[in-house]
Amino acid sequence: MSDVRVHNFSISLDGFATGAGQSADAPFGHAGERLHEWMFTTRFWHEMGGGREGGTGADHAFAAMHSAGIGAEIMGAGKFGPPGWQDDPDYKGAWGPNPPFHTPVFVLTHRPRPSIEMEGGTTYHFLDASPAEALKKAREAADGKDVRLGGGATMIRDFVAEGLVDHMHLVQVPIVLGRGVRIWDGLEAIEDVYDIEAVSTPSGVTHLTFTAKRR
Amino acid sequence: MSDVRVHNFSISLDGFATGAGQSADAPFGHAGERLHEWMFTTRFWHEMGGGREGGTGADHAFAAMHSAGIGAEIMGAGKFGPPGWQDDPDYKGAWGPNPPFHTPVFVLTHRPRPSIEMEGGTTYHFLDASPAEALKKAREAADGKDVRLGGGATMIRDFVAEGLVDHMHLVQVPIVLGRGVRIWDGLEAIEDVYDIEAVSTPSGVTHLTFTAKRR
After folding, report:
1. What share of chain A is helix, strand, coil (3-state, %, to 5)?
2. For B4-83+95-212, which CATH class?
3. Chain B contacts of A32, Cβ < 8 Å?
């Protein structure tokens, strides 16, 4: 069976994946861009359409795992758009006309709407479904390829708690946010079911990989 | 002025320095020894009286900073003994007849008692004092050498919040405890006042050093 993977999911030292006060202008709240600066200096980000040419060191090596072999993504409502997007029937997501996913994307929301076809191969589908149900749909759409979980923290926690995640890559950034949405809540003893590796890099971040032991 | 330092302070991925349910039999609660296994395999630990011969790699290099140049330690009541030790007037601490401190040690407690002189140069003094007041006493006793903060998490947080800590060395262990006493609470934006480095080592832990920027 194909794998379920999490990539480039950035957290603070205290485990927050977003800060407090999320809005259209501040999708990560008071965290701003600080959780993702490590990625902006990679060749991976440049190839995704980012500005700088970027390096090909360790941060790039980890970041570039994001896309290879992925056939579909599942994301939470908060990644699709800022709070309240469900009230705008014409809203097409926060990721531009040519989103960086290039596969079917399943958006988890309690208020589903018709699918939206974007440029570049991304089609948004909207699901009010449990993690297992959403994964079944995404696996069908991925046609044998892997499924990526796009975040935020709440949906990743839910999928991990149900034992649905095969590989998880977190990136710990040396800041303390104090407030926001925390990845660790409810994941006590995750080391019993995952092999965990830590690799710090010269940019100052620490890459944490979780590989399911049952594999 | 002499420095105030924290060393070998081990935390879980989710930031807990002790687990829940601390007692005489389980000084770190449900965390058990897991937060400190990285240290038991170092030469430093062997030289402190631990069983194995131990290695001299990166974990040892970090661990060995613990003792050099230290003239006194300040510790919280929970490090001196398990909950309730204050009710035993003859209690002499959880660290044996020859404690591994070999300096004056100031124990913060709301119920002070007379000082106790132990073997090997350790003398326990008991203080009901603010962080600044305790530090003043410890500095006098340290006679120009540095002062080490021994933990637990609550007292370290209090000293950091008051800007009294010059150097802090945390060791992040790849387990998720879920419950206990967390180091990060109240330390939002610590990156503004400390330079932070992260170094992961082959044992699987990540050493985090915090150096005060004002220096």
Report:
1. 25, 30, 45
2. alpha beta
3. none
* Separation of alpha carbons A189 and B172, rounded Å: 15
The pLDDT > 70 percentage for chain A reads: 100
pLDDT of residue B50: 80
Q: A58-91, pLDDT tens digit by residue? A: 999 999 999 999 999 999 999 999 999 999 999 9
pLDDT in tens, A6-58: 999 999 999 999 999 988 888 899 999 999 999 999 999 998 888 778 899 99
Q: Report the alpha-carbon distance of residue A170 to residue A194 in Å, rounded.
A: 13
The tokens for A88 are 């705008």
Name chain A contacts of B190, Cβ cutoff 8 Å.
175-176
Give, in degrees to the nearest 5, the angle at Cα B111 between B108 and B113. Answer: 90
Torsion of CA A214, B16, B168, B36, to 10 degrees: -60
Token pair of B172, please? 């992040």
Q: What percent of chain B has pLDDT over 90?
A: 89
ipTM value: 0.92
Strand, coil or helix: A169 = strand
Average confidence (pLDDT) over B188-207: 97
Q: What angle do CA A46, A50, A51 make, to 5 degrees?
A: 95
Strand partners, B172: B11, B206
| Closest chain B CA to residue A15 | B14
Given CB atoms, is B208 within the 8 Å cutoff of chain A?
A: yes
Contacts with B34 (C-beta within 8 Å, 6 or more apart), sequence order: B173, B175
User: In CATH, what number does A4-86+95-203 get?
Assistant: 3.40.430.10
- Beta strands per DSSP E along chain A: 4-12, 16-18, 70-76, 104-108, 116-117, 123-127, 146-149, 167-173, 181-182, 194-200, 206-212
Band of the pLDDT at A215, cuts 50, 70, 90?
low
Q: Does B211 touch chain A (CB under 8 A)?
A: no
Which pair of structure tokens corresponds to residue A78?
């908060």
**What pLDDT, in 10s, does the model give residues B80-126?**
999 999 999 999 999 999 999 999 999 999 999 999 999 999 999 99
Question: Is the bond preceding B152 in cis, omega lying within 30 degrees of 0?
Answer: yes
Residues on chain B touching A184 (C-beta within 8 angstroms):
13-14, 176, 178
